[in-house]
Specification:
Blueprint (H helix, E strand, L loop, with lengths): L1 H12 L2 H19 L4 H16 L3 H18 L5 H16 L3 H19 L4 H16 L3 H19 L4 H24 L8
């Protein structure tokens, strides 16, 4: 529907506050006309959850994404790629809520499921691998993050090309990893700031 497309357009542009109303209206309309377990309703739940995530309203995001994951698991199956993508969104919300153990567990289990069901080079798998690498980097676990980020970037470049969103995201995480490694190395030799 037009209202759903408007919400999705603003979500993809990062205009989360503008996206909220049409996304809420689309979800309400789909719940009313299609029911809670229809695939389009689940998509609307996920979209609105991601709107709330972008607005940093993590409690509302968590409620919607948990519902989307549960409903998707029932209707599509727990190992369906769409279900697993929703789990990674939920992991991101939990990370934002500082529930690091739960978040890491979701990223790790989801990555294993994606590798098993769609393969190592699927965009969803590479995105999850990159997200796990980013999670580890943000926790200061550089030695664990590095192989994941490098693999995600190399595979995305080879399989998806430089212009794909997953490749671009992997480049961003790889750049952050390089900066963190340089900062760590400089602090080990007693320099607090990199030379200019």
């Amino acid at each position: 529907s037009a209202i759903n497309l408007l919400g999705l357009l603003h979500l993809n542009m990062g205009n989360f506050a503008v996206s909220e109303l049409p996304s809420k209206q689309a979800l309400a309309a789909r719940r009313r006309t299609l029911g809670n377990e229809h695939p389009l309703t689940i998509i609307s739940m996920t979209n609105l959850g991601e709107v709330y995530m972008g607005m940093e309203d993590l409690d509302r995001a968590q409620v919607l994404l948990e519902e989307a994951v549960a409903t998707s698991s029932r209707t599509l199956g727990g190992d369906h790629v769409r279900t697993l993508q929703r789990v990674t969104s939920l992991a991101k919300v939990l990370e934002g809520q500082r529930e690091f153990t739960k978040s890491e567990e979701l990223y790790t289990k989801t990555l294993a499921s994606l590798r098993r069901t769609v393969g190592d080079n699927n965009p969803a798998t590479l995105k999850c691998l990159c997200q796990l690498g980013s999670f580890l980097l943000d926790r200061g676990r550089l030695s664990e993050a590095q192989p994941k980020v490098e693999l995600a970037l190399e595979s995305a470049q080879r399989e998806l090309g430089e212009e794909h969103n997953v490749t671009k995201a992997a480049h961003q995480v790889a750049n952050r990893l390089s900066e963190a490694a340089m900062t760590c190395a400089l602090s080990e030799v007693g320099l607090s700031n990199p030379p200019v």
